[in-house]
Amino acid sequence: MTRYTKLSMVFFMLFFLFAVLSCDGDKNVGSVPPQQSTVPQVTQSPTRAYVTNNASGTVSVIDVATNTVIATIPVEDAPNGVAITPDGTRVYVTNWLSNTVSVIDVSTNTVISTISVGDGPNGVAITP
Question: Domain extents for the chain?
């Protein structure tokens, strides 16, 4: 073994020893939160589920008590993400190919506003 190789091995062993000794095995260093899906396909209100139908450009409203479709709402091209406001009065739906977000009034199941956004909106989240 060359002198350089021996020095490299000693340096590596000292580094490893320092790393082991500097770790306190009794301490929790925290955890990484699980990844959340960026594209929720179904979001529920207490009595209804809103499901995006990407190919048809619609949102199906399902009565969760009976598991039947009670309305189909036309939105724009390629609806994808969906989120409901904390008070349950509005549903926001991203329209991937239209670069828009449709706002649905849950009392009438109609689009009350369309918001232009950046290219290819995919997911949506609403803070409480």
Answer: 42-116
Which phi and psi angles does 127 have, rounded to 5°?
A: -85, 150
Residues 71, 77, 79, 83: is their CA dihedral positive or negative?
A: negative
Residue 117 is classified by DSSP as -
| Statement: the pTM of the whole predicted model exceeds 0.85 | no
Q: What is the full per-residue pLDDT of the chain (128 aa) written as tens digits?
A: 565 555 555 554 554 444 444 444 444 444 444 444 444 455 544 789 999 999 999 999 999 999 999 999 999 999 999 999 999 999 999 999 999 999 999 999 999 999 999 999 999 999 88
Which distant-in-sequence residues (6+ apart) come within 8 Å of 24 by Cβ? none
**C-alpha dihedral sign at 94, 97, 98, 99:** positive
> What is the fold of 42-116?
Thrombin, subunit H (2.40.10)
